[in-house]
Amino acid sequence: FAVILSPNSVDAPWVINELDVAMNQQINGKPIKVLPILLKESELPGFLVGKLYGNFQNEAEYEDSFRKLINSIGLVFNKSVMRYERSANSLGTALDKASLKNLPLMSKPFHRPFQYIGMAIHKAEAEVGATANSVGNIIVENDECRMLLEAEGNFISYVEIDLKVTAPHNQNQEFDSEPVLGALSIGLTELDLERKKIHYHTYYDHRRKLKVSVSCLCDGAPLTVAFSSKYYGM
């Protein structure tokens, strides 16, 4: 139940009555969530004081307010829907950066490895040309990289790729994710950056509902790219 709060609405008895009914239903455990949206500065009704609301008075804070509003109802905020322009050359830029870093451009079966998420184990075996071990995990390796397909039940739920040419890397060493992802034919405009630290970068792929990370797992290791459906939104 979303209610727009402005000087006019908070003075309207029917708005307050409907809001009061909705609040009582939420308190009584009914499947309803009250979402107050502050559009213009106004005095909040007493029963809304202290309740999280979307504050849309300041345009500069619009995205942050929208994020809080979306997160409050248990959804993952996709900030890309608020962008009016997307770079059509993002993948090309990532590929160019990979080439400049002397990173090999991966071909099958390492090309765009998120494709294996949700795939049945027997189909993944056929796609990558390798046999699953006793717990259903598949490992594929060559001179340039190592790929782990991890199964949950009968389906692949996690994919991890170590780019060997990036070793040795240290956790206190900053890096650029774009060429690393470019080596796997993934452009940054496909992803939304969620968190960035020196030794790991976390992204969300909202279209495929995946959590994507680029990280250095330990000193001396190569950079690792991981894809997970299980931890999307976490």
How does this model look, in words?
The structure is a single chain. This protein is of the alpha+beta class. It has two domains: 2-77, no CATH class; 91-232, no CATH class. 24% of the residues lie in helices and 24% in strands. It contains six helices and ten strands. The chain has helices spanning 7-10, 13-27, 62-72, 90-100, 121-128, 177-182; strands at 2-5, 35-38, 54-55, 138-141, 145-152, 155-163, 192-196, 200-205, 210-216, 223-228. Strands 4-5-6-10-9-8-7 form a seven-stranded antiparallel β-sheet. Strand 7 and strand 8 form a beta hairpin. The radius of gyration is 23 Å and the shape is elongated.
Briefly say what this structure is.
The chain is α+β, with helices and mostly antiparallel strands and 234 residues long. The protein has helices spanning 7-10, 13-27, 62-72, 90-100, 121-128, 177-182, and strands spanning 2-5, 35-38, 54-55, 138-141, 145-152, 155-163, 192-196, 200-205, 210-216, 223-228. It is elongated, with a radius of gyration of 23 Å.
Question: What's the domain count?
Answer: 2
Amino- and carboxy-terminal Cα gap: 25 Å
Q: Mean pLDDT, as a whole number?
A: 83
Rg, Å, rounded: 23 Å
Q: How many individual helices?
A: 6
**Element order: H for helix, E for strand:** EHHEEHHHEEEHEEEE
Describe the global form: elongated
Q: Would you identify the regions where 5 or more consecutive residues have pLDDT less than 50?
A: 84-89
Beta strands, count: 10
Could you say which structural class the secondary elements and strand pairing correspond to? Answer: alpha+beta
Strand-residue fraction? 15-25%
